[in-house]
Write a structure and sequence with these properties.
The protein is an alpha/beta fold. Helices cover 34% and strands 14% of the residues. Strand 7 and strand 8 form a beta hairpin.
Length: 306
């Protein structure tokens, strides 16, 4: 199945409305699309994070499929255990159908605290889809910086002052780490391009081994923008070259959303309060533009539009 329009997506809803996500948060869009593609025979393994605390307000839940909550550090290890148990029950004839095992974990639970368990699962080749929803900080515990926080961004642990102008290093190459484990499928995505996201989920679920999808999640609270800008900011991340949309399949890279003419990174930065201080520091914006230019060259994106 190739998803091109909303009519291609199943009508069934396995992610219920009425959750507690912030207005404008695209984690709900992500969960909705993932479950439309994966269907009712899915098991969600959900690490602590924004997506967990706001969708399972006791005694309610937004998940209409089996769901497991676990700590920051052991999402991949738990998914490996579920996979092993499921395979054993099928082998013994106790189950007659398979299930899609899907991890939902934030950037803190993936790039930092949970990286060891993820590395082990990828190395072993355990069969599940790992989705990192990356809002570029620890948003549900107070906007502390994570390994995925971008260069120049304000957080409560990368404050602004006489010596600091936000985070001083660029974000960790998380998908590069996954690919270094020889996974068969890895991809970047953003809910602003929902059909690109849906097609990547479907591919990831079909892999006979681990698959990894890194999804950028613009955060209204931590990035400090109006909720009406969520989709626009996600598109600008792609159109500036700061978040190229690509996939890695059996050793081959492919750009899935071409950008013939890029917008300058300032178009992306100026909409977000976490970068507001950079508007008076053009030398730092130049550094971010160089980073985007390097990504653009690597993934075949076009020059900056004049």
């Amino acid at each position: 199945m190739i998803y091109r329009t909303v009519r291609d997506l199943p009508t069934e809803e396995y992610f219920a409305p009425g959750h507690g996500l912030c207005a404008g948060c695209p984690i709900g869009i992500l969960a909705k699309i993932v479950l439309k593609v994966s269907g009712k025979d899915s098991i969600i393994v959900n690490a602590t994070g924004c997506g967990e605390v706001s969708t399972t307000l006791y005694p309610s839940t937004a998940w209409r499929v089996p769901w497991i909550h676990l700590a920051f550090e052991n999402a991949a290890a738990t998914a490996s255990g579920v996979r092993a148990a499921y395979d054993a029950m099928i082998k013994k004839g106790l189950l007659n159908k398979d299930a899609n095992i899907i991890v939902f974990a934030g950037d803190g639970g993936t790039a930092d605290i949970g990286l060891q368990a993820l590395s082990g699962a990828l190395e072993r080749g355990d069969r599940f889809l790992y989705i990192c929803y990356d809002n570029e900080a620890y948003m549900n515990t107070g906007i502390q910086r994570s390994g995925a926080t971008p260069f120049g961004a304000w957080t409560t642990t990368t404050p602004l002052g006489a010596k600091l102008s936000g985070r001083e290093i660029f974000k960790k190459d998380l998908i590069g780490i996954a690919i270094a484990h020889k996974v068969r499928y890895a991809a970047t995505a953003v809910p602003s391009y929902p059909f690109d996201l849906a097609n990547k989920i479907e591919k990831g679920l079909k892999v006979n081994g681990p698959a990894f999808i890194h999804v950028l999640i613009p955060c209204t609270t931590g990035w400090r923008f109006d909720p009406s800008f969520t989709i626009k900011i996600g598109k600008l991340a792609v159109q500036t070259g700061l978040w190229p949309l690509y996939e890695y399949e059996n050793g081959v890279f492919r750009t899935t959303v071409p950008v013939p003419r890029r917008k300058p990174v300032i178009e992306y930065l100026k909409l977000q309060g976490r970068f507001k201080h950079l508007l008076n520091k053009p030398e730092l914006i130049t550094e971010i533009q160089k980073y985007a230019d390097e990504l653009a060259q690597r993934f075949g994106l076009g020059p900056i539009e004049q």
